[in-house]
């Protein structure tokens, strides 16, 4: 599910002014050449930027840093018959795109600056206009020409207060909920750990009883696929999703059968939390000689992909979920070992810089360094939900850095959409900060919406999840994020039953 620290380090090394565009161009042609084999995006020739409800997909090129190069046009969309594959979109609203795009990973290059942001602004303005016409400048066969796209009437603009007090958000959510229910599998799953976290939580957040059955089916799926012993690969991700979803369901419904299932999940997570040097296998000492701990305090209290110390060991993203899971299960009545719980928080605290940013493991990236915020978001919600009062202070620092540096929101390591979900959830503890985060990333929600009302997975430095189910993954994550203001979860402020 997640990539290694080495990839993170390699990409971080590329964060300088000499690198251009929003996502990295790898020598092998990625990310643009990646393609879904099934689903709505199977017809698209690569992993390209979606340009909102226009039906256009584009890529960025180094040679023309102010151009959007058209790679696909969906049939029966506003752009069908007006925009062609190979066209260069060079301006909008009568103005040329002038700001070059940026590429790479790091503080200096995060964000949509360039033609992506300019296009999003033009689309937003067009949606707010009475005529609903998007005016573009297109270069075709070395000649420039104006093109007008008539936008669908159903695509109302988002309110300035988006996603709060926003009719458009409510309209979008209704469609997303229905799409999730339609795409739920017979066994109750939605497809993977990320989907089986955000999809049921989004539906539960809705407060609509008509979605209860779908959520319960997913809860039973989690229950049937977890136990006190499990040797499956990347297993801790599965158990974190199960713990969080089942806990929220119990706190909402009071279904007593869930308690026994939660106890099994808790017992399993106790066996996989790293606490002792004896958990380091001889195989790991050979395969990762520089990664495994040499004393009892190193990486103590965290969870990795698999039980104990596997590979390069515990990581902040999953340890944040572990601390959160323990807090939620404790509210359900599970007797949580305080020593273990505090050890998880200690791990997160050791990995938090003075500015509130959470690094990959249990060491800091630098006093004022920051990057993608998925880990920081997971740590934030874990601290907000902590039964230990002193942890609320650190949550404030997490929220502050996420709201102050919102540009990395859609560009997180390994599982980008998971990072977005936890980044939003972790920021929601402060409504002002959450509004700031959403305002800064309004462009992403505008451009990710497809003509059919679903949401697209935008290009990212890490492609995990892009493929056959990427449309579902982006839709579930969007539904979860846009549902947060409804405060339908204990994590977002709802009182337990």
Features:
497 residues, alpha+beta, Pdz3 Domain, Glycosyltransferase, 2 domains, 7-stranded antiparallel sheet, 16 helices, 40% helix, 7% strand, disordered N terminus
The quaternary structure here is single chain
Number of strands: 7
The largest β sheet comes out as:
7 strands, antiparallel
CATH architecture descriptor text of the largest domain: Alpha/alpha barrel
Number of domains: 2
Percent in helix: 40-55%
Unreliable stretches, pLDDT < 50, 5 or more residues? 1-21
**Global mean pLDDT:** 92
SSE-based structural type? alpha+beta
Distance between the termini: 34 Å
The dominant shape is globular
C-alpha-based Rg, rounded = 22 Å
Describe this entry's structure for a reader.
With 497 residues, this protein is an alpha+beta fold. It has 2 domains: 21-150, Pdz3 Domain (Roll); 167-492, Glycosyltransferase (Alpha/alpha barrel). The chain contains 16 helices and 7 strands. The chain has helices spanning 5-12, 115-128, 167-182, 195-205, 212-224, 235-253, 257-272, 282-287, 316-331, 338-350, 374-384, 391-404, 416-427, 431-440, 442-448, 470-483; strands at 49-50, 56-59, 68-73, 88-92, 95-96, 133-140, 143-150. Strands 1, 2, 3, 4, 5, 6 and 7 form a 7-stranded antiparallel beta sheet that branches. α3 packs across α16 (470-483) and α12 runs parallel beside α14 (431-440).
